[in-house]
């Protein structure tokens, strides 16, 4: 007797179903005067863009609070499917799929109390998601100061122009992003 592997027994990606949602990259209301954009590419071990990765970002509000905004996602009244955010509330949470070129972009507000966005990476070939941080500025931080300069650089987003930061994620190989172990 032969059995077909189930999704839990194979390595994805299965992220396109039910995980991405409309407005997932809009953590803060569009047009907010303090809006920032963090964008970049996800690369595999050979340096090729990963077109089917999914990123989640988590951060405190500009005032440092971490309560989020329950009820800010809108649902289709018939199907119950998430159809987007309410467009006026800061949520602290983003879910962004990379495009065909491996690019992502999230629009948010500067985090309060910490100099970084927490980032989770889901991608093909990964049995478990990866945790990292995108530092928007160099800070006296226990994690950053404990790393050699070349590894520290993999966590620093670069300000390309005012309010726009570039943060590339390398899953393996030269310049591999520092990933955190919370296990």
Helix run count? 2
Helical content class: under 10%
How much beta, percentage-wise?
25-35%
User: What string, H for helix and E for strand, traces the elements in order?
Assistant: EEEEEEEEHHEEE
Structural notes for this entry:
This protein has 183 residues and is mostly beta strands. The strands form three sheets. Strands 1, 6, 9, 10 and 11 form a five-stranded mixed β-sheet that branches. The N and C termini lie far apart (37 Å). The mean pLDDT is 86.
Briefly, what is this?
This protein has 183 residues and is mainly beta. It is built from two helices and eleven strands. The chain starts with 35 loop residues before the first strand and ends in a 13-residue tail after the last strand.
Write the layout of secondary structure elements.
Layout: E1 36-43, E2 54-58, E3 73-75, E4 82-85, E5 93-97, E6 103-108, E7 116-122, E8 130-135, H1 142-145, H2 149-152, E9 158-161, E10 164-166, E11 169-170
């Amino acid at each position: 007797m032969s059995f077909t592997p189930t999704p839990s027994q194979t390595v994805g990606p299965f992220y396109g179903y039910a995980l991405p949602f409309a407005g997932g990259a809009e953590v803060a209301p569009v047009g907010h005067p303090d809006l920032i954009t963090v964008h970049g590419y996800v690369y595999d071990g050979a340096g090729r863009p990963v077109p089917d990765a999914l990123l989640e970002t988590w951060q405190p509000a500009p005032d440092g609070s971490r309560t989020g905004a329950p009820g800010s996602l809108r649902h289709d009244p018939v199907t119950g499917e998430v159809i987007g955010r309410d467009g006026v509330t800061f949520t602290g949470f983003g879910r962004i799929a990379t495009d065909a070129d491996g690019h992502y972009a999230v629009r948010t507000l500067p985090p309060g109390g910490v100099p970084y966005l927490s980032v989770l990476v889901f991608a093909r070939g990964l049995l478990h998601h990866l945790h990292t941080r995108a530092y928007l500025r160099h800070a006296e931080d226990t994690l950053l100061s404990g790393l050699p300069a070349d590894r520290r650089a993999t966590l620093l987003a670069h300000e390309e122009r005012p309010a726009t930061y570039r943060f590339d994620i390398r899953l393996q190989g030269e310049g591999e992003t520092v990933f955190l172990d919370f296990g």
